[in-house]
Specification:
disordered N terminus; elongated
């Protein structure tokens, strides 16, 4: 009888240890994914900043005897229909893709954040006018708005950045306005007003510093969306026509060879997918870190 009781006790303790270790295992797996995402982002940033040190060949170098060669030791990701090394093209193509993503997030975040901050803090008629304008923009899907702007302005790098940035403005404006509205009636703002602080000083030193963190998280996650939209415009032929194409243009060039040379389109698409997933993982972790409710828990 004692042996049966001891066996049950050991089984219960073992089960308790197993159940307690499950959250730890999940947390460890989550940390591994975040570290992996960080390494992917760092590698792609290194490709954009130092392509000559990473790419084995020049992106315009053609190998006449290696046209449409599959991945091998000589050409890690194969060659395209001109005999160019696909890995070198992906490395050099990261520059324009990342520039479009980062620049459009900065421009869109600044424009949207400014509109939302002014609208939420001043209020009144100005708030109504600005929000009606933002609501009109929100009725148009972002990719469609970017497509229309890019088609109207023409294929230029800065036009693509402007088109992607404008399509992201409504989201940033709504988030910033909501944060400003929730902050400007907080006790510390009321206390600052009671001691005679000017509205501009209250906004600059008390309201704005406490309202920008959700915008930072949104910008981090929006970087992946901006690269997707920019790559989509390049895929549709609205990107910059250059000797060194970006990831979207590489996808467009390789789609006609999927049955005979799948690697031309697959690896640029894989680069886009990995970067967007990695940015989203980092953005989720940043959101958890900046969430005051979770930090208090």
């Amino acid at each position: 009888m004692k042996e049966v009781i001891s066996a049950k006790t050991v089984w219960k303790e073992k089960r308790l240890r197993t159940s307690l270790s499950r959250p730890a295992r999940k947390a460890a797996a989550s940390e591994l994914f975040v570290y992996g995402a960080g390494l992917v982002i760092l590698f792609i940033l290194a490709c954009a900043l130092f392509p000559k040190g990473i790419a084995p060949y020049a992106p315009t170098q053609m190998f006449a005897d290696s046209i449409l060669q599959p991945p091998s030791r000589t050409h890690l990701l194969g060659t395209d229909y001109f005999g160019r090394d696909v890995f070198s093209l992906v490395v050099y193509g990261s520059r324009d893709s990342l520039f479009i993503g980062v620049a459009s997030v900065l421009v869109g975040g600044l424009l949207g954040g400014t509109i939302g901050a002014v609208s939420g803090y001043i209020g009144g008629v100005l708030d109504m006018i600005l929000m009606r304008f933002i609501e009109v923009l929100m009725t148009i899907p972002g990719i469609l708005l970017a497509l229309a702007i890019a088609a109207a302005l023409g294929p230029h790098l800065f036009n693509i950045v402007f088109a992607v940035a404008v399509s992201a403005v409504p989201g940033y404006a709504r988030v910033m306005r909501g944060q400003i509205l929730s902050m400007k009636h907080r006790p510390f703002v009321t206390a600052s007003r009671s001691i005679g602080a000017s509205p501009l000083r209250m906004f600059w030193w008390h309201v704005l510093p406490n309202a920008w963190s959700p915008l930072l998280v949104m910008a981090t996650i929006g970087l992946g969306s901006a690269i997707l939209v920019g790559s989509g415009l390049s895929f549709l032929g609205l990107g910059v026509l250059k000797e060194i194409p970006d990831w979207g243009a590489l996808l467009s060039q390789g789609r006609g060879y999927l049955t005979v040379a799948w690697w031309i389109a697959t690896f640029p698409g894989l680069a886009i997918t990995l970067f967007v997933l990695s940015v989203n993982l980092i953005g989720d972790r940043l959101r958890d870190a900046l969430d005051p409710k979770k930090s208090r828990a």
